[in-house]
Amino acid sequence: MENKDGRVVLVTGSATGVGRACAVKFAKFGFDVVVNYPGADKEEAEETVRLVENLQRRAMLVQCDVSRDDQVVAMVEGIEQTFGRLDVVVNAAGLTYFVEHADLDGLTEQQWDAIIGVNTKGPFFVIRAAARLLKKGSSSAVVNVSSVAGISGFGSSIAYCASKGALNTMTKSLARALAPEIRVNAVCPGPIDSRWLRKDMSKEQIAQRVATFPIPKLSTPEDIADTVAYLATGTSMTTGQVLVVDGGRTM
Questions:
Q1: Within the chain, where are the H helices?
Q2: I need a surface site. Which of 19, 143, 224, 251 has the fewest CB within 10 A?
Q3: Could you give all domains of the chain from N- to C-terminal order, each with its CATH number?
């Protein structure tokens, strides 16, 4: 893949998991990286910064709750002051609560608001704040990290599925609204080998869950980062697409 020395990527939620894998992947491709975390993951975010800097790229560490529009605007203003440009945005910040779908009373209004705030409103706030900077570039792109839960309706909670379904639709709307200067796409992972999953599922439960997949294993964060990097830099004619990466689960 082409080296992109001098370009800048913002990866929200890049303290751990898919976000960190994306930060490292783009650093390998020559990008300077804005590492974002919401507040609770400072040590992990600092480790992401070290990983980026070990690849001889600049890293900017920013604490920002993407569900807060004022904080997002301040973050993008800081990026402009530091780098003077922004070429790619990866919306990897995510939130969920594990609530059985049949337990309608178990899903609180507070949980709904938090999930929608981070997973749906957050990407919109980030894209809106970043659009002016992105439009200055010649091949700018946004990649939203969504989920197959937004397609199948099966996931950690009904609110999570709804938030990702909305993100998928919003990806298409923004691809139209921001064309032709900015391409906007989404990747929909299936189950990912992450602390989220392993906190709530045993090894036996995970094995049972993936046993019927055509590729019977969990995706790694690096698997998803590969797809994000492709959508951001490996294609020039792809926009408004929602690309499923799930080992064939949703076929």
A1: 17-28, 42-54, 69-83, 109-116, 122-134, 149-152, 158-178, 195-200, 203-210, 221-233
A2: 251
A3: 8-189+221-241 (3.40.50.720)
